[in-house]
Amino acid sequence: MTKIHHGDCLDELRKMPDASVDLVITSPPYKQMDGFSYPMICGVFTNLYRVQKMDTLFFLNFGHLAEDKMRPFKVCDLALSAGYKLNDTITWVKNHYKPIQGKRRLNNLTEFIFMLYKGNKMPLLNRLAIGVPYADKSNAKRFSGGLDLKCGGNVWYIDYETITSSDEKLHHDRFPVELPEKCIKVCGYDVTTVLDPFCGSGTTGVAATKQGKDFIGIDMNAGNCDIAVDRICNTKLGPSS
């Protein structure tokens, strides 16, 4: 089941019932020109906390800004003020970046994914669902009973899909499908409904559908909603696991 709501995310969240969502994955607007404001973010996080079930995860992706390097951490702090607790900060290493001209800054190759949770205890993680093989195969026998798989850690190397023209770029601040897929897979509890209150072109919805999960998306841009619906409708339904 997929529902895409066209409208202001704060208004739409206020309509949702308490404790109705198992997992939140989102990337809010970073810049004022895209609609960012601290009061808006604060209101969204307060309502996200209300609609989430206890002992569930919230993955918050937020990038760097040249003019305000502290903004990602300030936004994460707003989530903590809403009631969430921070378990980890994942570093996403990208293959795509805008080269910086001049000699006062380095090219930015990363973004943050804050792993937050609602509840009194951190939910269990299925770490091996996104595990990686051992470089030294002898360690598989010593540490994993022969299983050539270990926790991949909190640095995620996720490439963007290659595009050959601007027409293929569905959203100017998109993230790869693999990112929300990892977030869903690593959950060690049963996930039925995934929510993205800033769903853009529906990448989180595509990942949720591929994993056999229900999805709720919200976006105030009607064009984005149309793209999201089309992408999700053309996504092959995966196993519910």
Task: Summarize the topology.
Layout lengths: L1 E5 L2 H6 L6 E6 L11 H14 E11 L8 H11 L3 E9 L16 E9 L19 H7 L10 E3 L20 H8 L7 E4 L6 H8 L3 E6 L2 H12 L8
How would you summarize what this structure contains?
The chain is of the alpha/beta class. It has a single domain (2-93, 112-124, 159-233), classed as Rossmann fold, CATH 3.40.50.150. Helices cover 27% and strands 22% of the residues.
Describe the protein in words:
The chain is α/β, with parallel strands linked by helices and 241 residues long. The chain has one domain (2-93, 112-124, 159-233): 3-Layer(aba) Sandwich (Rossmann fold), CATH 3.40.50. It has 7 helices and 8 strands. Strands 1-8-7-2-3-5-4-6 form an 8-stranded mixed beta sheet, sandwiched between helices. The longest helix has 14 residues, at 38-51. It starts with a strand and ends in an 8-residue tail after the last helix.
List keywords for this structure.
241 residues, alpha/beta, Rossmann fold, eight-stranded mixed β-sheet, 7 helices
Structural class by secondary-structure content: alpha/beta
- The CATH H-level homologous superfamily: Vaccinia Virus protein VP39
Helix content: 25-40%
Task: Return Rg in Å.
Answer: 18 Å
Any idea of the CATH topology? Answer: Rossmann fold
Widest β-sheet, arrangement of strands: 1-8-7-2-3-5-4-6
Q: What is the H/E order?
A: EHEHEHEEHEHEHEH
Strand content: 15-25%
Number of domains: 1
Number of strands: 8
* Global morphology: globular
- For the termini, the CA-CA separation is 15 Å
Query: What's the level 1 CATH class?
Result: Alpha Beta
Q: Mean pLDDT, rounded to whole units?
A: 92
Task: Give the uncertain stretches in residue-range form.
Answer: 165-169
Count the helices. How many?
7
What CATH architecture label applies?
3-Layer(aba) Sandwich
Largest sheet: 8 strands, mixed
